[in-house]
């Protein structure tokens, strides 16, 4: 064990520094991540109310979709009622069938696995890399060589798990706390093994991987606009795709699969009521106008944290990988081997003193609902789960 790993964690010093960076004269608790309404939100929402276009029709949805397309560079965007429904729809569009397996990190929000379950498919957990907090492509490569075979059918290759006999249809890399996963090796693996990629970019609007926006390195991706994300529509989500046919199908299936007709109700498949209401899209249009400003502020806050925690013993402030330009949606401290001993104390003291902090999610393979799912060894996930602490990250915590 190297020296840094043995070093004691000074919990009081961490709290003192957080107090210092955040606000000294505050009267309320500093949240982890607070929405910012700085622009035309009132104006656009009022417009919906004034005109009566609040629900399933109206011009803000299309406008929001094209603003997202412009910002991310994704050729097609379909807005949905939340990020989970966007993920579910992506899996349906990738033709994930019941009893097929879908690879995903265990270190993610439960929605990633739930969307797989909605398809009747089976989550298959893979480990993450401490340097990116996303899927460890090297470990995945050796694992696939060990457990999977590539089969060919109609000139298409697909991947079979030899241990379960099931097809491994897709993989869902998730860009943790906004930090991009190293996508290139995953894209290579997916091509080699015939596994489709769906990016869970729920947290990474405003984050770029080698100058490409997250969610545009695969055929399908999902974003979330829940209240805790970098921009919000109250509740909302979006599907990004580079495929026009999939985009048309996504729009159709998220709007009850109704065929176009002036009055007839005719539905040609089992559709979903997953469309984003116009009033939520109105909020989104105003929010995205301020996205570059929010990303800038959050990056400045992260820089301040980085400088402050640079010389701390026993922990490091997580910074973007060299290939990434991150939105720093949630700022993250990673404690050393002593972390598991100190985590509860740190969480308890910070929250008591009005600085909201949170641990990372319980790894999904440890939840009773998912504990019987196939999984590789998950030692990095299990270790990180006891050493990660998220600290206040709102864009207004740094002076303009
Ligand atoms: C927020 C989030 C989702 C789900 O988004 P909702 O809009 O809350 O349904 C999915 N995956 C990850 C990683 C998230 O953080």
UniProtKB/TrEMBL annotation:
The keyword Translocase does not apply. The active site is at 229 (proton acceptor). Belongs to the DegT/DnrJ/EryC1 family. InterPro entries: DegT/StrS_aminotransferase, LegC-like, PyrdxlP-dep_Trfase, PyrdxlP-dep_Trfase_major, PyrdxlP-dep_Trfase_small. Signal peptide: none annotated. This is LegC family aminotransferase. Its cofactor is pyridoxal 5'-phosphate. The keyword Cytoplasm does not apply.
């Amino acid at each position: 064990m190297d020296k840094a790993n043995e070093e004691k964690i000074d919990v009081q010093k961490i709290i003192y520094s957080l107090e210092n960076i955040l606000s000294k004269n505050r009267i309320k608790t500093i949240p982890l991540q607070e929405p910012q309404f700085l622009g035309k939100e009132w104006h656009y929402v009022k417009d919906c109310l004034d005109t009566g276009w609040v629900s399933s029709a109206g011009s803000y949805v299309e406008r929001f979709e094209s603003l997202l397309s412009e910002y991310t560079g994704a050729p097609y965007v379909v807005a949905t009622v939340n990020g989970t429904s966007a993920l579910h729809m992506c899996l349906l569009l990738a033709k994930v069938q019941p009893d097929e397996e879908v690879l995903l990190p265990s270190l993610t929000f439960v929605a990633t696995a739930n969307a797989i379950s909605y398809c009747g498919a089976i989550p298959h957990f893979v480990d993450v890399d401490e340097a990116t907090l996303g899927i460890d492509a090297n470990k995945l490569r050796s694992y696939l060589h060990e457990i999977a075979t590539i089969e060919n059918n109609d000139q298409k290759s697909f991947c079979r798990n030899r241990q379960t006999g099931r097809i491994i249809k897709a993989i869902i890399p998730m860009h943790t706390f906004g930090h991009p996963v190293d996508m290139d090796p995953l894209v290579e693996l997916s091509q080699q093994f015939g596994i489709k990629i769906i990016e869970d970019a729920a947290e990474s609007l405003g984050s770029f991987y080698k100058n490409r926006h997250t969610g545009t390195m695969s055929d399908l991706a999902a974003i979330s606009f829940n209240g805790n994300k970098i921009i919000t529509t109250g509740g909302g989500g979006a599907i990004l795709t580079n495929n026009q046919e999939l985009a048309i199908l996504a729009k159709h299936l998220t709007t009850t699969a109704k065929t176009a007709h002036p009055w007839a109700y005719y539905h040609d498949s089992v559709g979903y009521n997953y469309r984003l209401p116009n009033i939520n899209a109105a909020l989104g249009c105003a929010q995205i106008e301020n996205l570059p400003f929010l990303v800038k502020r959050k990056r400045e806050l992260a820089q301040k944290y980085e400088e402050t925690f640079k010389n701390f013993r026993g922990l490091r402030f997580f910074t973007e990988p060299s290939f990434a330009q991150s939105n720093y949606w949630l700022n993250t401290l990673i404690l050393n081997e002593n972390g598991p001993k100190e985590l509860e104390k740190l969480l308890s003291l910070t929250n008591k003193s009005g600085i909201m902090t949170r641990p990372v999610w319980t790894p999904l393979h440890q939840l009773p609902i998912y504990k019987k799912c196939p999984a590789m060894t998950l030692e990095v996930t299990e270790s990180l789960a006891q050493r990660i602490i998220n600290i206040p990250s709102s864009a207004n915590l740094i002076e303009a």
